Amino acid sequence: MAYRRRNVAGYVFISPWLIGFFLLTLWPIGQSFYLSFTDYSMLADPVWSGLANYRNLFGDDDFAKSLKVTFTFVIVSVPLKLFFSLMVAMLLARNLRGMNVYRTLIYFPSLIGGSIAVSALWRNMFGADGYVNAILAWFGIAGKGWISSPDTALGTLILLNTWQFGSTMVIFLAGLKQIPQELYEAAAVDGAGSVRRFFRITLPMLSPVMFFNLVLGIIGSFQMFTSAFIITKGGPVHSTYMYALFLYEKAFKHFQMGYASALAWVLLVIVAALTAINFLMSRFWVFYEAEGGRRG
Q1: pLDDT at 4
Q2: N or C, which terminus of the chain has less Cβ within 10 Å?
């Protein structure tokens, strides 16, 4: 009886979380899955349409454009962000006086990096009369409308995503602190230079952290919405028409909730597939010290 009472007490204590999970997470997911097979506009009851929404995706030019733009964004921005974050983390890993202050100052912009205010500021910076062109004018260089040109608009979003490197950098910094200094000292005694120590010690020992940041970076990049919505609204000429923005417009601009739900589940499948591929490929390059070698 005492054992049962303890179990009941435990369920009572976690009941707020369980209620929230079922009502605010599991139930909406189930509803979204059901609505993806219906024709639903929020103005009338959903009508079952089977796989019609999924079939219509393959004939939708906007779906293809948004996928192309999003994959381009992910392929370019994720490696660039990882590289920049790692370089900054290596600089901040040094034991210098006042380094904690520098770490705080560099990480602080990431606390507001995804906000609407920063996106608005970015839009003003790269506008035709923005700060970037003003700085270029000092050197006699004629600027352009960076966010109004199809050739450079996506690049400004990639640059903003790279600038939001704080969280990734902190994770890299924690990983760097876990690498035994004895390895570097032994390599230095053997005559290994800084470049060789980086590729032979730092990267292999940091590979689990890099894999973690890679997976999170891909998932986050596929969900990128705020910057595209505030800065470019998908333009010009659909050059920044991100998948999340396409989904948003179908749901809340055209009120095609069933179609938008199908888009959401397709996005889930894409992200899950890429995550699974990363896990399969990780056995060839991710090193786990506890296992004494590479995974697999």
Answers
A1: 66
A2: N
